Amino acid sequence: MNAKTDLSAPSSIAASISANAQRLSDALNHHMRNSFQPESRKTLRKFHPAEVSELTGISMSNLRTRHQEGDFPEVETDSRGRRLYTAEEIDQIRHVMARTGRNGEAYLPGRREGDGLQVISIVNFKGGSSKTTTAIHLAQRYALRGYRVLAVDMDPQASLTTMFGYRPEIEFAESGTIYDALKYEDPAPLSSVIRKTYFHNLDLAPAGLLLSEYETETAYALQHKVDPPFTQRLAIALDEVEANYDLVIIDCPPQLGFTTMTALLASTGLLITVVPSMLDVASMAQFLEMAGETVRTLEEATGPIDWAFLKYLVARFEPTDVPQSQMAGFLRSILLDQVLTTPMLKSTAISDAGMTQQTIYELDPGQVVKKTLDRVLESVNGVADEFEKTIQQAWGRRAD
Ligand SMILES: Nc1ncnc2c1ncn2[C@@H]1O[C@H](COP(=O)(O)OP(=O)(O)O)[C@@H](O)[C@H]1O
Ligand SMILES: [Mg+2]
C-alpha cells in the first residue's frame, strides 16, 4: 500500500487543510495590517484641480475664477500652493454649480423627479472574468462623478467586501451581510447591514460565507412556497433604501444559482463581462443559454421581466494579443452595439493595486508609472462614461 491509499490519509489531509487555512488566515491578517493600516483605509486620497475638472465638467479656468470670487469652499493647498480637494468638497462645488451655473442641472447627474433607482448586475458565470474589478471601479467612478451609489456584494466569496478593507470571515462570520436581508426566517432590514465606506457617496452591503446558505434555503422555500419568493427578495429589500441612492451596483457570484437569479431579478440592467478568449466566450455562450432558459421559465410563471438594458464589456483586454483582438471583433460582429465600444484593458496597475485591496482610483498617482496609470484610467473611465450614457438613457436623458 502506498501513501496515497493509506486509510489514515484522508483525515491527515483534512487536518492539513485546516492547518493551511489557519496559517493562510494568519499570514493574510499580517499582510493586510502591513499593506494598509486600517486607520488610513478610512480616508480617501485628495484630488487635484485637473481631476476635479474632469470629474465635474467645470473647466480649470472656471474652477480658478470661481474660487477667486469666493463661490466655492476654501480647500487645502499642497506645499506648492496647488489646491487639493476631498470628494465631499468636489460634491459641494457641484451643488454650487447646480444652483448658480448656466445649465446648472447638468452638474448633478443623479436621479431627478420621477427617475427610478437603477440597479445594475455585473454578471458572468466564469470566475476571473473581471466582475468584481468592474463592479468596484464602476461603483467608485460613479461615486466620484456625483452619483449616490450602493455596492451590493452577492458573492459568498466576498471579494468586493474585501476590496473595501473588510475581513468578511472575521467581521461578518455570524451576521452583517446581505444574507441577513435575504434570508427567509426573520430577514433584517437592508439598512441594518449597509455600511458607509471611506469613499464619499459609496455605501456597501457586504457579503460573507454565510450567504451561501441562501442557495439551499431557497430550494427549500420553493418547495414549501415561502413568500416572498427568491424572485422578489432583493427587490423588496432594496425598496426600503431606494430613496438614498441613484445607482446600485451588484457584484454577482460566478454561478447561475438562486443568488445570481435573485440579483438579476432585482436589476434594471445587466452588464456581462467577458474576457475575449475562446474558452471564456464559449463559457459565456453556455451561460447565456442557461440564463435565457431560466428567465423564460420565470417569465411564464411571473410575467415579463423588464430590463432596461443589457451590455457586454470586453474585459482584461490585451490589444496586442492577436487572438484576443480577433475574438473581440467576433463578439462585436455578433452582439453588435450591445458590446461597449471601450474595452477594459488588462493592466498591471489594476492587478497590482488589487494586491493591496485598492483600485486605480485609490492609488496615489505617485505610486505608479504615470504612463501606465494614464492609460488604464483612460480605459476604465472610458468604460464607465460610456456605460453612464446607457444609464442616463434609461432615465430618458441624453448625456453628451
Ligand atoms: N483589467 C485587468 N487588468 C489586470 N488584472 C485584472 C483586470 N481585471 C481583473 N484583473 C485581475 O484578475 C483577477 C480576477 O478578477 P476579478 O475581478 O476578481 O474576477 P471575477 O470577479 O469575475 O472572479 C483579479 O486578481 C484581478 O485583479
Ligand atoms: Mg468576483
Give an account of the 3D structure:
The chain has 400 residues and is of the alpha/beta class. The chain has two domains: 49-107; 118-394, P-loop containing nucleotide triphosphate hydrolases (Rossmann fold, 3-Layer(aba) Sandwich). It contains 16 helices and nine strands. It has helices spanning 9-35, 38-41, 49-56, 60-68, 87-100, 131-144, 159-163, 168-171, 178-182, 213-223, 230-241, 258-265, 278-302, 322-335, 348-355, 370-394, and strands at residues 76-77, 83-84, 118-123, 149-153, 195-196, 202-205, 247-251, 269-274, 309-314. The strands form two sheets. It has a seven-stranded mixed sheet with strand order 5-6-4-7-3-8-9, sandwiched between helices. A two-stranded antiparallel ribbon has the order 1-2. Helix 11 (230-241) packs across helix 12 (258-265). The longest helix has 27 residues, at 9-35. The structure holds adenosine-5'-diphosphate and magnesium ion.
Keywords:
single chain, alpha/beta, Rossmann fold, seven-stranded mixed β-sheet, 48% helix, globular, binds adenosine-5'-diphosphate, binds magnesium ion
CATH superfamily of the largest domain: P-loop containing nucleotide triphosphate hydrolases
Classification by helices and strands:
alpha/beta
Output the radius of gyration.
23 Å
Distance between the termini: 72 Å
Number of strands: 9
